[in-house]
User: Which sequence fits this backbone?
């Protein structure tokens, strides 16, 4: 649809089908369908602002965020913050904070419109729904501590400070499965197809998070190379062909080949840490702290 700050915003084709259904479903709430359309557009304006909160915060901490997709169940900001708990926490928490910032503004507009409710009941009803049902409702829903909702990911980021990257994700996804069971039960009890669709979406993402946590735990158990440590996180690099040549695609162990591709002889000026994502010259990795690898394994930083 448009681009802002280098972030492309896309609208999934199914959005139009669901929009037509939802507008017709709420027919009668306003005196004209035009107000139903405005309400639905306002909903996704707030969703878009929420997703931009994630994306801009992620960029602020040095991460990558170039795309937002809007679809019937809301929006998805494709963010890739640096693998640090603080960076991840800010990237996730910034979304709900947008709703927190919008709430007093919408509440003020709602109170101002109270005196005009008789003259313009449609506008007053629209503001009431935007304030209480949409903005506050989205905020409460998103901060539920159920992975992969924002609340579940915030919980995971806080646990990361204590448990490490892999174990925090494992705990958050296990708790997420418990919450999703509750969502499924609620969907059946309320006979709500949208709650059911949200529960399925959450289940798929939670399962992906669990698989990622298992992969991180396996990575944490890899043997580590003595004599080198990341200048940023102090983790010793794993032994194995985990780096890939950007020119020929050959995987190789950059510490074994002195930062040169063994196939095409391309020399790399800097090496990326597979634990924290920092990129530093090879000369900065050399260290006499031989205990770095054992420290890493003990902390299971993921």
Assistant:
């Amino acid at each position: 649809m448009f681009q802002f700050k280098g972030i492309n915003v896309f609208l999934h084709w199914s959005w139009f089908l669901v929009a037509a259904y939802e507008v017709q479903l709420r027919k009668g709430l306003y005196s004209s369908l035009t107000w139903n359309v405005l309400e639905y557009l306002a909903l996704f304006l707030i969703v878009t602002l929420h997703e931009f909160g994630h994306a801009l915060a992620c960029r602020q901490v040095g991460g990558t965020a170039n795309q937002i997709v809007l679809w019937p169940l809301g929006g998805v900001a494709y963010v890739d913050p640096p693998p640090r708990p603080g960076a991840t926490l800010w990237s996730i928490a910034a979304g709900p904070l947008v709703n927190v910032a919008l709430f007093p503004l919408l509440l003020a507009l709602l109170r101002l419109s109270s005196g005009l409710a008789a003259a313009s009941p449609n506008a007053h009803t629209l503001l009431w729904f935007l304030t209480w049902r949409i903005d506050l409702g989205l905020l409460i829903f998103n901060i539920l501590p159920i992975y992969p909702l924002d609340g579940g990911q915030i919980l995971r980021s806080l646990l990361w400070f204590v448990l490490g990257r892999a174990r925090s994700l494992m705990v958050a996804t296990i708790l997420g499965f418990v919450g999703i069971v509750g969502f499924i039960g609620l969907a059946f009890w309320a006979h709500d197809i949208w709650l059911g669709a949200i529960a399925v979406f959450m289940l798929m993402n939670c399962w992906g998070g669990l698989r990622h946590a298992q992969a991180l735990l396996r990575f944490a158990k890899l043997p580590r190379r003595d004599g080198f440590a990341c200048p940023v996180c102090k983790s010793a690099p794993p032994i194995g062909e985990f780096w890939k040549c950007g020119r020929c695609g050959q995987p190789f162990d950059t510490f074994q080949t002195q930062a040169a591709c063994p196939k095409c002889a391309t020399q790399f000026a800097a090496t990326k840490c597979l634990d924290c994502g920092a990129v530093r010259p090879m000369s900065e990795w050399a260290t006499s702290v031989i205990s770095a690898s054992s420290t890493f394994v003990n902390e299971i930083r993921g």
Observations:
- The chain has three domains: 1-143, 146-220, 243-299.
- The helical segments are 14-25, 33-60, 85-114, 121-142, 150-163, 165-190, 193-220, 292-299.
- The beta strands are 2-4, 7-11, 64-71, 74-80, 243-244, 251-252, 270-272, 279-281.
